[in-house]
């Protein structure tokens, strides 16, 4: 069950990576690289910091699911783009799930609740940051995509809090993921955005 | 004492990250991410290469100080920008300190003096490189910021030399850091720059 | 013998990094950083994922050879650029070699043939991706350089296949590297390119 949810999250993240490849007119290799990195990058960075071998290099499904997403986007990207609203909802679900699961894994390896929260957010948003950097864009995370990072922070903090209170396992993970998902969806619906510093001038560098 | 110096260095590096966020008109999340990565990125890369859990994920202060820097820049960035000359001097101090401390840690973990020097430079300049890449700019390190990398190289090499000669501990670290700081400040005052290859043509790719 | 081949591959990769520095009008520090990262980046990422200390930090030659390449390009880059066809052939040889060697090391550390193949490709192309990101360009890997990634994939897959069939050691490595080299050279000669998705629109983000 946990593995299946993981793979669904990976599949949706990989779709957004492959679609970015189409938008940037990359070839199928570029689409595949972006799909793999978007789907697996956050978890790989988390595991490097935890000093364990990345989970992505121990599961066949983790590597193959982004290949499938690439093939689908390559042949049917206009159709995939048409169901973008569905993808965004699934992406919000993946965001919630990965933040909760990432935080739980970090706690398991002995990190403090604060550090586990940071690593949970990293798991959830790291792949998207790598995708954007490789595609030559400033990560959307940095200038707000209707609070993309904030729901991940909520999910991770709730997970860390529940664990610290002695509540582990799937009920806690689910609760944290659902809260993050709900905030992200609400922020998207209402167009909530993180504030910008007053009087921020045009780039001068 | 060592911890306090570290935190001062982290605070100053974080200020430069958050200010970059303001210049690029990022929101508060982007400012915070840049602040954290500028302050902690170099040390995280060093620790990943040493194959130990990053120090940033074992200390609350390391994570919270950049948050404080972000808040300060968010509310008072015009004032912060006005004291930029002070920040640049503190940044030079952080550069010297991080190169010396990074080299010492690498030697402690058994690296050769040459490799420890490379890792010391990485510690000092790595966060700034990550900041610039995330902000969508070619790292200033690569086209010279009045010898930004060269003082780090000096500090790291001196630290490695002193350690090899049997001189360890804070006096050696301080000497190496002060030398790097002095070269950086002198280079800034006099506008020293690293040479460019003769006849370098316009980008053709 | 193996060490010498490695150093030749590192030298050629470093040349392409330093030349990119000249094209982007970077100073000698920028050229050196690009040379080091292009030559060593792929192997460092591979070793981080394998959770071992990077080989680049255990060999003096690995660090010093890119320095030599930087000096050569700094003083004689018009001559170096003139022999670019030779460099491209040597780069193809490095690509083949690094994919085979990277795959072999990953198998040694217990990865599955599929994951070892992924890591072999990473070893071969990782440094070039880091070079391009640092230089502010979308990695050429992503939009095809006459199948740059595909020969690396072929070499890695053949290496993994031969090892699984019980064929180890230099004959297998050589066979895999030569196949990758041959495909890359043929693709360059004939201008083969990876396909782009039909109807890929202009960037809309």
TrEMBL record, chains A, B, C:
Domain Glycine transporter: 4-77, 89-162
Location of the protein in the cell: Cell membrane
UniProt keyword ATP-binding, yes or no: no
Membrane topology per record: Multi-pass membrane protein
Transmembrane segments: 6-22, 29-49, 55-76, 83-102, 169-187
Keywords: Cell membrane, Membrane, Transmembrane, Transmembrane helix
Family: Belongs to the UPF0126 family.
Name by which UniProt lists this protein: Trimeric intracellular cation channel family protein
Species annotation: Nonomuraea spiralis
């Amino acid at each position: 069950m946990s593995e299946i949810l993981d793979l669904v999250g990976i599949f949706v993240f990989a779709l957004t990576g492959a679609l970015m490849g189409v938008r940037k007119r990359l070839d199928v290799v570029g689409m595949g690289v972006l799909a793999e990195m978007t789907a697996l990058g956050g978890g790989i960075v988390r595991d490097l910091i935890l000093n364990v071998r990345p989970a992505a290099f121990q599961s066949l499904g983790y590597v193959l699911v982004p290949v499938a997403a690439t093939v689908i986007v390559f042949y049917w990207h206009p159709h995939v783009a048409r169901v973008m609203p569905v993808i965004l909802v699934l992406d919000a679900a993946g965001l919630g799930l990965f933040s909760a699961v990432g935080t739980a894994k970090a706690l398991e390896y002995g990190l403090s609740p604060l550090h586990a929260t940071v690593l949970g957010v990293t798991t959830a948003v790291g792949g998207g940051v790598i995708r954007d950097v490789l595609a030559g864009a400033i990560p959307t995370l940095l200038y707000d995509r209707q609070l993309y990072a904030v729901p991940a922070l909520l999910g991770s903090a709730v997970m860390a809090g529940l664990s610290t209170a002695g509540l582990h396992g799937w009920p806690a993970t689910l609760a944290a993921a659902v809260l993050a998902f709900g905030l992200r969806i609400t922020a998207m619906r209402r167009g909530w955005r993180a504030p910008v510093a007053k009087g921020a001038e045009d780039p001068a560098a």
